[in-house]
Write a structure and sequence with these properties.
The chain is built from ten helices and twelve strands. It is α/β, with parallel strands linked by helices. A hairpin with a 2-residue loop joins strand 9 and strand 10. The protein starts with 5 loop residues before the first strand and ends in a 9-residue tail after the last strand. The protein binds iron/sulfur cluster.
Length: 325
Amino acid sequence: MAEKLLEIENLCVEYNTEIATVYAVNGLSLSLDYGETLGLVGETGAGKTTTCLSVMRLLPEGIGEVTEGTIMLDGNDMMTLPEETVRDLRGNTVSMIFQDPMSSLNPVMTVGDQIKEVLKIHNKDMNKDELEKAVDNMMELVGIPANRKNEYPHEFSGGMKQRIVIAIALVCEPKLILADEPTTALDVTIQAQMLGLINELQKRMNTAMILVTHDLGVVAQTCEKVAVMYSGEAVEVGLAEHIFGGQHLHPYTQGLFNAIPKLDVDTHRLETIEGLIPDPTVKIEGCRFADRCKYAMEKCKKAPQLVEVEKGHYIKCHLFQDKKV
Ligand code: SF4
């Protein structure tokens, strides 16, 4: 067993289109232990989904490209493995739950067959009865009666469809789940049920998870570790208690917290982080948050380093460069 389940070092990903090159991920470094849950937080365009697709090696062919860095998954170098081996790891070692259950399922295949398909690929020695039994068990585990396995996706509600997607992702008991905003397409009550279900199954199977979200409340409820992404890089990484209760926060993380409505304060207007994320087609030398940061200073024209400000808590900002532990 490798020391870490996932180690991403200095990952850089570009999308090359006819119009421009988009620098989607810019030097991201992250690690995850076996069984650990990491919340990947940030606004749209921060590079969260691209990071997950890079781990799965599912970047759009001919357009998306990892230009630098390494991804080690359970001791496997995802950058150099042959496609056949990567296909074997998908589903077995790493699975992804996509945002929209409507487009993740095949509309002309029964839900049972869709769960069975994954099992068949990774368990070639299972006979027909064993496969059927495993499908029944998985359906019951996600809270859907097994006798509905011969129905098609359109016969299920949005929440039920997402349960099927979770069943497909977990049926081979992967070591890592990449959950890309798994509850965004669902209403609030179903969201809570779904997060509870993912958490319960994850604990039962000792599966690690990267939960991609822009919702800090969801992260607080479910994650042990948090990485805050901005414009394709991790600006802050720490334990949940560092981010939610700590004294030191990156100015962008501070802005995210300030934007959350406070129940005990009579507010007419919510705080926002002024400005927009930088144009991803432009390479930036200095701090990528500088145009929106109220603490910006001369030295921010040079890129800061990610430094450890307390044990296990890293911040990429010139305000903290001399607070190294
Ligand atoms: Fe703000 Fe400078 Fe820190 Fe960037 S490095 S977040 S501009 S203080």
